[in-house]
TrEMBL record:
Coiled coil: none annotated. The keyword Glycosyltransferase does not apply. This is Class I SAM-dependent methyltransferase. Keywords: Lipid metabolism, Methyltransferase, S-adenosyl-L-methionine, Transferase. GO terms for molecular function: methyltransferase activity. Its EC number is 2.1.1.-. CDD domains: AdoMet_MTases (cd02440). SUPFAM superfamilies: S-adenosyl-L-methionine-dependent methyltransferases. One of its GO terms (biological process) is methylation.
């Protein structure tokens, strides 16, 4: 009885602030609607002990309860995230927090490799079920806004390669090459000689297969290698969706390594997610804590200002910065749609717990980008102090 009274008081308080298309079903068959509109999301509380997650509705608590099966949540993930965020906002849970666990888990080669394997080595078939055919797992580029995902991902790769002005015969290093899409296109369409590196064995294996299928064995090499172990020099360097794994404190070292690998007159592009919080704290409502625990162990987001500072500390001059935040919001929304369209197939490719993690993670990222909690920047740089006469006078070369 006391539990039902607490729920009644909570629902009355929520309805006084919000009208949410949410139904809460109890273990005894009763239910509570938080709006006169038909419910778009249903939360089933299977036992009284599970009610505590709902009565303290941060995104971390709700996400954890969903993933671990303490709450059963039905509905589209985008609706789950929106309703969860509004519940958390009504409770005043918007503070961003620092993550003390990061101080206890240094970015060693072993730790970073374990984190990469945890995230990327689910299975190649798992990713293929909801990514585009080229399996590009980073922000797409919607030049006109009406492109499908596959077209927007090709445009993103071309946008990057044009920004760094890749020319035939040049050497290109792709740090965090994924399944090889950028290296393959740079070789096939731009005539570059490419080296792609990854810490994921699954990615490396499939990327090598795709290089062979494209007949590019003489132009593209895929290595299972840590960026810290690289040697040599390259005319062009790309890092797409990788530096989020480096650690904020290690960014100057990371960019210094890139500087050492960049040939005189070379150009580098860093494409990565940033936080909009200048203190590098997690996203609000506990969303960051959820991602730290369940999705990206060892992941850290820096503010744009810290990235630019670290590039300068690493010996690089920033030459161009472009914000693609809304492009990533759309990319994640399309990934979420694909994920839900192939939900049964994905359920056969992984366990139910991991499926639930990814279900809310992708939608949560779409929401976070759309609401400016996180952002995405492409930053073009070169060795600091080089003759600026080597640079084009305008950005026109990027947009043929």
């Amino acid at each position: 009885m006391f539990t039902e009274m607490k729920l009644s008081a909570w629902s009355t308080g929520v309805r006084s602030k919000l009208s949410l298309p949410l139904r809460v079903e109890l273990w005894n068959g009763e239910h509570v609607d938080l709006s006169s509109d038909p419910p778009r999301v249903t939360i089933r509380v299977p036992k009284p002990a599970s009610l505590r997650y709902l009565l303290s509705p941060t995104l971390y608590n709700l996400g954890r309860a969903y993933v671990e099966g303490a709450l059963e949540i039905r509905g589209r993930a985008a609706d789950m995230i929106r309703i969860g965020s509004e519940l958390a906002a009504a409770e005043g849970k918007a503070e961003r927090r620092s993550n003390p666990l990061r101080l206890l888990s240094p970015h060693t080669r072993q730790k970073d490799a374990e984190a990469i394997r945890y995230h990327y080595d689910v299975s190649n078939d798992f990713y293929a079920a909801w990514l585009d055919p080229n399996m590009v797992y980073s922000c797409a580029y919607f030049e006109n806004g009406d492109e499908d995902l596959a077209s927007a991902q090709v445009k993103k790769i071309d946008h990057i390669l044009r920004k760094i002005d890749v020319r035939p015969g040049q050497s290109l290093l792709d740090i965090g090459c994924g399944w090889g899409a950028l290296a393959i296109r740079a070789a096939r369409e731009f005539g570059a000689r490419c080296v792609g590196i990854t810490l994921s064995e699954n990615q490396a294996a499939l990327a090598r297969e795709r290089v062979a299928q494209a007949g590019l064995d003489q132009q593209v090499e895929i290595r299972l290698q840590d960026y810290r172990d690289l040697t040599g020099q390259f005319d062009r360097i790309t890092s797409v969706g990788m530096f989020e794994h480096v650690g904020v404190q290690h960014l100057p070292e990371y960019f210094s390594k890139i500087d050492s690998l960049l040939a005189p007159g070379g150009v580098v592009m860093n494409h990565g997610i940033t936080t909009t919080d200048v203190a590098h704290r997690s996203t609000p409502y506990g969303g960051g804590e959820f991602i730290d625990q369940y999705v990206f162990p060892q992941g850290e987001l820096a503010h744009l200002s810290a990235v630019i500072k670290a590039m300068q500390q690493g010996g690089l001059e920033v030459r161009d910065v472009e914000n693609l935040r809304r492009h990533y919001a759309r990319t994640c929304a399309l990934w979420t749609e694909n994920f839900e369209s192939h939900f049964d197939t994905i359920g056969r490719l992984t366990d139910a717990r991991r499926q639930r993690i990814w279900h809310v993670y992708l939608a949560g990222c779409a929401y976070a980008f759309a609401h400016d909690w996180i952002s995405l920047y492409q930053i073009v740089g070169a060795k600091a102090g080089e003759d600026p006469a080597q640079m084009p006078w305008s950005r026109r070369y990027m947009y043929p």
